[in-house]
Structures are given as C-alpha cells and as structure tokens.
Amino acid sequence: MKAILHADREWGIGKANGLMFSIPADMKFFRETTTGNVVVMGSNTLKSFPGSKPLKNRTNIVLYPGGEKRDDCLVVGSLEELFAEIRKYDPEKVFVIGGAMLYKTLLPYCDEVLVTKVDAVGGADAYFENLDKNPDFSLVKESEPEVTNGYTIRFTTYKNNAVKQI
C-alpha cells in the first residue's frame, strides 16, 4: 500500500477540507498514478470532492464510521473492516489519499509515500508527518524541480523501512 499527497514546506497537506494549491502537474500525476487502482480515504476527503462523488475509474474505499452505504463507493465502518477490504487487493494498487487522520493511521502500513513537495507555505490546517525526520522512512527518489502554475515542485518517493503488515 502507498500513500500519495502533496505537501508544502511545513508538511501542510490541506486547508478548510481542500487542497492548498492548484497545480495541474500534481493533479495529472495523481490521476495517472491512481486511475485503475484502489483509493482509500476518510469521509471528509470524500465530502471534499465535487458533489461528494467518488473518483472516477478507481475503486473508492471510504472509512466512514456510522456512514450510510452507497452504490458509488465502498463504505466501511471500522479499521478492521477497512483492513479486511484492503487485503482483497494487490497492495501495489492501493493508494491512501487522505485525509490527515487516515494518513496518520495508515502510514505505518504504507511501503511507499509519494509526495509532491511544493516549495511554498499554504496556510495549512492539516499536516502530514515530516518524513525527513522519521527514522523509518528514507527518501529514495526525487525529481528535478519544475515550476508549474507559479510553484516550484518536486516529485519524491519515500520508502518505509519498517512496514507493518495489515
């Protein structure tokens, strides 16, 4: 399982239940990486999408305790249910996409974290763990910086050297 996100210089990942930056190259990378795969999210992430609709061309699994079942995505009510559902899929095709609490909960189980680093401060109210300071994670890949939509970004990959099994 992998996590995918963008983060500012302070590891901020969101603001007012939305993205802090509109960066087409980051959105393209996210779309190309997750399309045809499984995305795992919390209920607030689902609510942040236009019309609270799940992402197209992906299997959407939503951890939503007490949430009602839907036809357009799979709603699970507990971490145990979530783990049971995730186990049905190839872990290489499962991506945690937010929000902050779900990232925090599932990070130890992710073998890789794909972070688009944005060289800016976005005024976040939701944060991701600083992987550069986490001894379990190593930066294994980093693109050259590119400027897009006025922001300098780098696509990075972190490896979890102490992955927990689901």
Describe this structure in words.
The protein has helices at about 25-35, 45-50, 80-85, 100-105, and strands at about 1-5, 10-15, 40, 60-65, 75, 95-100, 110-120, 125, 135-140, 145-150, 150-160. The chain is of the alpha/beta class and about 170 residues long. Strands 1, 3, 4, 5, 6, 7, 9, 10 and 11 form a nine-stranded mixed β-sheet that branches. The chain has a two-stranded antiparallel ribbon with strand order 2-8. A hairpin with a 2-residue loop joins strand 10 and strand 11. The protein is globular and about 40 Å long.
Describe the structure concisely.
This protein is an alpha/beta fold and about 170 residues long. The protein contains 4 helices and 11 strands; from the N terminus they run ββαβαββαβαβββββ. Strands 1, 3, 4, 5, 6, 7, 9, 10 and 11 form a 9-stranded mixed β-sheet that branches. The chain has a two-stranded antiparallel ribbon with strand order 2-8.
Number of strand elements: 11
Rounded mean pLDDT score: 97
Low-confidence stretches: none
> In percent terms, what proportion of residues is strand?
25-35%
Number of helices: 4
Helix content: 10-25%
Distance between the amino and carboxyl termini: 10 Å
The gyration radius over C-alpha positions equals 15 Å
Which class of secondary structure composition applies to the elements?
alpha/beta
Major sheet: 9 strands, mixed
Order of helices and strands: EEHEHEEHEHEEEEE
Which term fits the overall shape? globular
